[in-house]
Amino acid sequence: MKPSVVAIKQQDIFKFNARAKSIPGAVNMTVGEPNFNTPDHIKQAAISAIENNKTHYTVPEGDHELLKAVAKYLHDKYDLNYDPETQIVATTGVTEGVFSAFNAILQNGDEVLIPSPSFTIYGPDANFNGASPVYLDTSKTGFKIVPEVLSEVLRTNPRIKILLLNYPSNPTGVSYTGDELEALAAILKEHNIFVISDEIYSELTYNFEHVSFGNILPEQTILLNGLSKSHAMTGWRFGVVCGPAEVISQINKIHELATTSITSITQYAALEAYTNGYDDPIAMKEQYQARRDVLYKGLSKLGFECPDPDGAFYLFLKIPDEYEQDDVKFANELLKEEHLAILPGSFFGIGGEGHLRISYAASMDSIEKCLSKLGNFLKNHQKVTSQI
C-alpha cells in the first residue's frame, strides 16, 4: 500500500458528526451545509435534461456552453476574466479541485503554506503528493495572514510551492478586504509560488464586497469556486478551477484521470444556476445574516468571544477563560449532557485550541435551542474562582 495513503486518517469532523447523528433529538450545529433546498428552477433544469436524454459523456473540462456561463457569471459578479476555452475546468466540487490542483503542481519535497486554523483537507492533500504542509498560526493576528509574517515565512521556507487561501474562512468566518489582499499580493509576486484561492463562500460575504484573489494576482492564482454554498447544491458536487491556461491544462489532465468528466445532469443544473440564478444567493444570504446576528448576540451574553464573522456561516468561539480550555472535552461533554453538537476548534489545526466552531447553516429554532443548551451547560460547569 502507498505509505502516504495509509498515513491519512479519517477526519475527526466526520467522526464527531456521525456520533451526533446517532443521538436522537440532538441539535447538530456541526455541518457546513445550507439547510435550504436547491432552487426549483435548477432542479427543473436537471429533470428536463434527464427527460431529454442528456445523460451522455461530456468533454472532461465540462460542457463548453456551461464554461461560457461560468466565465460570464464570474465576470459579472467579481470582474474576473477567464477564457472559457482554456482557463476553466468543471470539477466534482471544490474538494476535487484542490486534489487535482495539488496533484498537478506538487512534487516530493515541496511545501504548502496553510493558514491555520483551516479546513481539514488541505494538509492531507499535500501529504498525499509527497509535499509537507507548513501551518501558519493566525490566532494572534485576527485569524488572518499579515504581510510581515508572510514575508518572513516565505523567506525562511524556500520550498513553499503553494499558498492556500480560503476566504471567507471555514472555520473562522473571517475574510479579507481588497486592501489586505493587495498587501499580500505585493509580497507574493516576488516569489515563484502559486496561490490556490478557495473562495467557495464568496457569495456569503456580509461586511464588505468580496474581492477575488484571481483579480489581484491572476498570473499566480488558481481560483476555486462552485455552487455548493451559494445555491444550496452540496449534493450536486459542482466546482470550478480557474487560472492561467498553461496550469489549467495540466490540472485538467489529473481531473480527466480521476473522473473522466462530472455528471452531465449536474452540468445542466449548473448551467441553469449560472445563467438564471444570479439572485438565488441573495435571500439565503439575508437569512444567514439574521441567524448570525442572533447567534453572535446570544453567545456574547454567555461570555464567548469570536472574530467578527465577515462571511460563510460559522462562528469560531473562544471558550471563556473561567472554564476548562480543553475544547475536545468541552464538545464531548456538551454532546453527552445537552445533546448539542458543535465542533472542537482543535480539529481545524494549530490556533484552534480552546475554541469551538458553530455552524449557523441551521434553522432559527436550532439556534435558539443551541443558545439555551449552551447556557445550561455553562451554568453546570462554571468553575468556582473564589468563595467568601
TrEMBL record:
Cofactor: pyridoxal 5'-phosphate
GO biological process: amino acid metabolic process
InterPro entries: Aminotransferase_I/II_large, AspAT/PAT-like, PyrdxlP-dep_Trfase, PyrdxlP-dep_Trfase_major, PyrdxlP-dep_Trfase_small
Domain Aminotransferase class I/classII large: 27-365
Keywords from the named record: Aminotransferase, Pyridoxal phosphate, Transferase
Family statement: Belongs to the class-I pyridoxal-phosphate-dependent aminotransferase family.
Name assigned to this protein: Aromatic amino acid aminotransferase
Lineage of the organism: Bacteria, Bacillati, Bacillota, Bacilli, Lactobacillales
